[in-house]
Amino acid sequence: MRISLIFAIALLAPALVSQELRIELPDRVRVSERTNVSVREDGRYAGLLSRQVDGYLSRTVGNEFEGRFFVYQQVRRDLLEVARSIDRSIQTSTAITDRILFSGNAAYPSYQNLLALPERSPAIGESWDEFAWIRIAPRSDDQPLRLPVIVRYVYHGVEPYGDSMAHRVEAQFATRYPLRPTTDPTAPTTDYEGNIASVQGSHRLSILLPLEGRQAAFIRDEFAEQVRYTDGSSVLHEGHVLLFLNGLSMSLQRGIAEQLREDTEELSGISVDQTTTGVRLRIEDLRFVADQAVLLPGEADRLDSIAAALRGAESSRFLIVGHTADVGSIESQVALSIERARTIAAELASRGINSDLMDIEGRGGTEPIAPNTEESGRAQNRRVEIYIVEP
Q: ∠ at Cα 255 (253, 261), nearest 5°?
């Protein structure tokens, strides 16, 4: 069975959310967080900030999910680039139940324990309060502040949403730091040693839980938040965050893995496995010019076969990750791994892979698969991994 046919069957999956006010998820999900805000620094307008964070999570056991989040600080890439560059990525684990999204202490998404539904389905107009956590880091070099907040929810019933229907919940909360003193031993606290001195903000959220389709939840947070720092400077963010939670097909991932193994079984230095992030195709011992991102001519045939195999995964999104041996400085390793990932993306694009569906990342020598003490091990560590993360 070809991958495109598997994908067509997966789109016919049953509804992700029932008529009851509950969160129902398949074993694989995509979480997308998009931030668009105007920025004022020390009272002066400093421009617009656009950030995108995409996470791919797979259920491991019970309500536990594991995967990786990818941060794109600027989502509009240079038209001359072959693929989007990832600013950074973070391996994470979290819990998602039928009542609570993202329990735990993960770096992303920025909201934890939001949404939190009551034990029984509420009546229209009924409200309830629950604790949640928000991650605050206006500047890229900030140590993030994980701040507890009290969220007031109000249920508004079921309403039209696109071609279907959805539960609507409205919510609001305020951010205040430092936290007010309390004698309640059960009250959440925060242990923070960064340079954020105070936070004051207000958030208003619209939450939709579609009754059918692949989208399991949509949250829009309209907010204004001022952060003051220990050096006396300040940052004001005004705008919105959009959070999308979409179901993906685990069976489709298995089908992709099986097809790639079949299509690449005669190639040397190629392995295919299924990870919590997505199907991974590993290309070991790629031969580049020493300390450069220039491929040696002997790699052309192998790349021809890899591109042909990847073309079978129609409409998929590809993440290309470069790795190096642990030789030289950390900075030089990361820079070289990025450029080598970019080279592979360009080679695949020249062989018919849609460049709009490719992202690149470099992790340097931080994830070795063999010892760096001998050349044979360093050769294995000089590799590129291609993840098929969607559909």
A: 105
